[in-house]
């Protein structure tokens, strides 16, 4: 996103952190900290993320405007010949619209395409292929979670696989396995979320800031994802006592039960179903090759996502408003307000101060520093939202001029994604996993979740640390 | 968690109820009459002929209770219970002096249908002039219910009482008045989409039984049963629709559930059907 990078650079240049009095920096550090804390307590506050960040965006802007000298008010100079200037409210260029369009476009595209039934068809097909055997079912659902998390987003993946798990285990009379299945799937959404550049928001933010291309990201994250998935499945089998069916009668009974699933039930239009496969393939291919496609490379991945969303919407041309209404506006406004808060904090010198702390970690050296950064990012991500974390870390690493191929970027990417596996509030998908558990009468406390998830989360972080230090340093 | 509900609904919808074929546990048939011995025997012969399809496949043991065997309804009940039949065959107004009284089945039949859990094959009174014509065979059998999906037991009784190569009508009527009442409530709820409910609810209510009935023919074919299965799934007024179907299709036997899970007494629709459809034999389960 060269356009946005230029904006970012321009705005950064306008504010000189060293010129900001310490008290002002401290004030905005408190605002940023309060927002992060409020996001961590989202459930207790009974407030949506977008509202929390919205309130703090309003407070930040008002404070900055009243104090004066912090924000770069005035016309914005557009890139290109003539240096054309436009009047924009100060909070408009504060937002990373490249990230927003990727999230908006891909959410809309995936939502429309999912209405064709391709994802549910795949999920049910795998259920039937398992023959109702719990071990095969866990393996298939685990793989499905990882792939869906990579292609869709981790929340949608968890919703699809989690709801199917609840229905299929109930049908098989194996509800006692539900907790183990859901927990494993919840954890795997964050593993799958590592697979591609657009699989999770931290990837989009950090990947874009670092300038990592889609294919490069996939090639680096892929091997780790495969190994971490296999380890997670193995641990789940052991810890949750998931065993295969042993007798022929058991196998036949289970196979008959899963045979009652009809994968074609959710397909309203076979034509749209087939077209959706092509669209999905085209979307992945185009996203993967965006940086190499003439013209498209200039427009960026946000354009690709939006363009595919528009093409897919042709199927529902008479009622596109319903598709717009189905978008996760809470998530979108959360990001928009978040970028505003972080932008103000950046101009107030807060990120510069935080950067000193990160710099101290990196100064520990390639090995210790990389490991410390990964673990610190994971721990921070465990208790609060990984999106502001990624945004702050990204800004700090960019400001410190950390090169694209540095393993510090990967330490942040792995840490921000994997930290979500430590607690039930660590990521949106684990929140969904717990919601599915509660919906089906499985009571699990915060501590109960941590106890069950801890061995997995530790294994994931240890594996990631080893991987980053051995292969990416 | 709107999306979660959406996907759970989708997956629940993908799980289809499939018909499971199983022969009803039927061995001992008891004829209960208030006729003298010879007439009871004649009645038994008539019923054996009527149920010849089942007799061939189940090798039935026939027993009969006639005029001399019981004096009171309580005594009859005790006698029936001691014989423990799998099927009771009797007729309307058993033990009543008047056989042409509408709106009732007679006190003895009421007790037999409500105080025992044994299925009752209820015939028209033998005094009817057309009695023999009404019991020629079970070539056309109609199963009626307001909830056929998953009710393998009801369907299996229908299958077994239908002649080889006969026609089994499976009628499922969703009560339109009741549905409208629910839709009117939905219209008043802000949390539910009225338009979606008006479009999707009737559609789903009918597609679920249609899909279930769709599996029956396949399962029967696998068991080399050559009956023709005719689905009759509609939204409407059950009693009027069943009466019309009886006439239009010249049905030989009507099969219906009569008991709710919560009670032994015959439920309202079963009782209404039993008293309104007076000319046809009814298998009351």
- The outline of chain B comes out as globular
- Strand order across the biggest sheet of chain B? 2-1-3-4-9-8-5-6-7
Strand content of chain B: 15-25%
Q: Which class do the helix and strand fractions of chain B yield? A: alpha/beta
Chain pair with largest interface: A-B, 24 and 14 residues
Task: Provide the CATH topology of chain B.
Answer: Rossmann fold
CATH top level assignment of chain B: Alpha Beta
Q: Alpha-carbon distance between the termini of chain B?
A: 43 Å
Largest beta-sheet details of chain A = 2 strands, antiparallel
**What's the CATH H-level homologous superfamily of chain B?**
HUPs
Order of SSEs of chain B: HEHHEHEHEHEHEHHEHEHE
How much is the average pLDDT of chain B? 89
Commentary on this structure:
The complex is a heterodimer of chains A (473) and B (285). Chain A has 473 residues and is mostly helical. Helix content of chain A is 72%, strand content 1%. Chain A contains 22 helices and two strands. A two-stranded antiparallel ribbon of chain A has the order 1-2. Chain A is globular and about 75 Å long. Chain B has one domain (2-284): HUPs (Rossmann fold, 3-Layer(aba) Sandwich). In chain B, strands 2-1-3-4-9-8-5-6-7 form a nine-stranded mixed beta sheet, sandwiched between helices. In chain B, strand 5, helix 7 (152-160) and strand 6 form a beta-alpha-beta unit. The longest helix of chain B has 29 residues, at 194-222. The chains are: A mainly alpha (473), B alpha/beta (285).
In short:
The complex is a heterodimer of chains A (473) and B (285). Chain A has 473 residues and is mainly α.
